[in-house]
Amino acid sequence: MDHFRLIDGVMHAEDVPLPRIAAEVGTPVYVYSRATLERHAQVFREALAPLGNPLIAFAVKSNPNLAVLKVLQRQGFGADVVSGGELMRALAAGMAPDKIVFSGVGKTDAELSLGLDKGIGQFNIESREEGRELAALAAARGQRAPACLRVNPDVDARTHAKISTGKAENKFGVPLIRARETFAELAALDGLDLRGVAIHIGSQLADLEPLETAFAKVGALITDLRAAGHTITHVDLGGGLGVPYRRGEVLPSPAEYGAMVARATAGWNVALTFEPGRVIAGNAGVLLTRVIRVKRGGNGPPFVIVDAAMNDLARPALYGAWHDIEAVEPTGERMTVNVVGPICETGDTFATDRDCDALKSGDLAVFRTAGAYGATMASSYNSRGFVAEVLVDGDRFAVVADRLDAAAIMDAERVPEWLA
Ligand code: LLP
User: Fold this and answer.
1) Per-residue burial over 325-364, b = 16 or more CB atoms within 10 Å of its CB, e = otherwise
2) Where residue 60 sits, what CATH number does that domain have?
């Protein structure tokens, strides 16, 4: 459930009419709903409540906006970070260091050191090499880094190939067949407190079965590791739960996910961590855009050219992803259109042959389900600047990320003297 709905024929975010935001902030602009973020956080937490008091570490990559992180910090969430930049954001939002988990295959020495400096709760080690480096850095400072070993279960998550992470050919984690020897080697190092395992098999999962299969493999591994004399107290089950992108689409609910996890982890006797991103933020945001003009098509439907483009919302261009498109003030009329941005490549297409609300020049429209992997993946391609972000709370709203216009970006560049 989200808080974007029509009130007297005009789409609102909570109690704020979207035309008001467009008028005051301009378009394109991401609009997030605090009430929706909080609701998703609470539903997720309640679904996992029977599992003790698991750490819920929001996947910062899905929406790193400081205000969004602050909303979730106030819900008791921690953070799953994958770079020094994300780590600094989580801390800036007030997340407790011990609720921060550091994932990612390419953490540099500087990033590992930053994590040690800040005393984060857990490093998810993705290789023997990384484990050795982290151990050496920690030992040199007289620390023992709390860590889990990320394993790759070789399970097909049945999602888009570019966001699948748990197949043997993917770069993530240590293959299960090498997990025991790697764990033994790393557990013996002074600089590590290797206390468990981590897993994350992919994103936008529409089916719980691959997760359950992967978790069963983790369960077997825990049994083996304990039999070999290791103490296993922590398991990180990652994120990945999908969300509906099309009206009417039904995906596994957090409650069904929680029930499956309870089944799969029965008897493990560990502290669990989860790293949800999309399921918390996805439907808590829309991308608000204005139609620049409608252009007649060649031999197909008309082109609705909007002022948002693939640099603002990359998912359709990158993954062929679907985002529902709705008029902010629908008339009830429909049309079949191609919805495109102004960028000079054909990939800048949001929808092809789409039946949607009729739209004409000057109308406002939204791309739904844009709260996760939206603004965070923006670029300034075509020198379009970086899109602004707004957070709504009841009948008020605030700009939580300024629009960085082309001039601001140009300010960070210079022509060397020897060229001038
Ligand atoms: N934990 C780890 C280690 C991850 O790599 C990810 C996402 C998550 C948690 C959060 O997954 P979620 O709950 O959001 O599914 N840009 C793509 C999605 C990339 C996901 C990368 N990893 C998209 O727009 O669909």
Assistant:
1) bbbbbbeeeeeebbbbbebeeeebbbbeebebbebeeebb
2) 3.20.20.10
Q: Looking at the structure, do residues 252 and 373 belong to the same domain, yes or no? A: no
159 CB under 6 A from ligand 1? Answer: no
Any ligand 1 atom below 6 A from CB of 172: no
**Centroid of chain to Cα 7:** 29
Q: Which residues are catalytic?
A: 344
Which residue CA neighbors atom 19 of ligand 1 most closely? 163
20 & 39 share domain: no
Do residues 151 and 47 both lie within one domain? yes
Query: Helix, strand or coil for residue 88?
Result: helix
197 and 288 co-located in one domain: no
In 228-378, where does DSSP find H-type helix? Answer: 254-265, 278-281, 315-319
Instruction: Tell me whether residue 117 is in a domain.
Output: yes
Q: Say if ligand 1 is within 6 A of residue 376 CB.
A: no
Residues 90 and 26 in one domain: no
Ligand 1 touching residue 265 (CB < 6 A):
no
**Domain residues for 238?**
34-280
pTM above 0.90, yes or no: yes
Q: What is the pLDDT along the chain (420 residues), one digit of tens a residue?
A: 899 999 999 999 999 999 999 999 999 999 999 999 999 999 999 999 999 999 999 999 999 999 999 999 999 999 999 999 999 999 999 999 999 999 999 999 999 999 999 999 999 999 999 999 999 999 999 999 999 999 999 998 888 988 888 888 889 999 999 999 999 999 999 999 999 999 999 999 999 999 999 999 999 999 999 999 999 999 999 999 999 999 999 999 999 999 999 999 999 999 999 999 999 999 999 999 999 999 998 999 999 999 999 999 999 999 999 999 999 999 999 999 999 999 999 999 999 999 999 999 999 999 999 999 999 999 999 999 999 999 999 999 999 999 999 999 999 999 999 998
What are φ and ψ of residue 367, in 5° steps?
Answer: -95, 120
The ligand 1 atom at the shortest distance from the C-alpha of residue 239 is: 13
What is the Cα 112 distance to its own chain's centre? 22
Residues 253, 342 share a domain? no
Q: Ligand 1 mean position to 227 CA, how many Å?
A: 33
Q: Is residue 104 part of a domain?
A: yes
Give the nearest ligand 1 atom to 277 CA.
14
Q: Quick check: CB of 369 below 6 Å from ligand 1?
A: no
Q: How many domains is the chain built from?
A: 2
Closest residue CA from atom 24 of ligand 1 = 373
200 C-alpha vs ligand 1 centroid, how far in Å? 9
Beta-bridge mates of residue 338: 303
Cα(62) to ligand 1 centroid in Å equals 7
**Residue 417 included in any domain:** no
Tell me if 136 sits within 8 A of 142, measured CB to CB: no
Q: Among residues 227, 261, 280, which one ends one of the domains? A: 280
413: CA distance to ligand 1 center in Å?
32
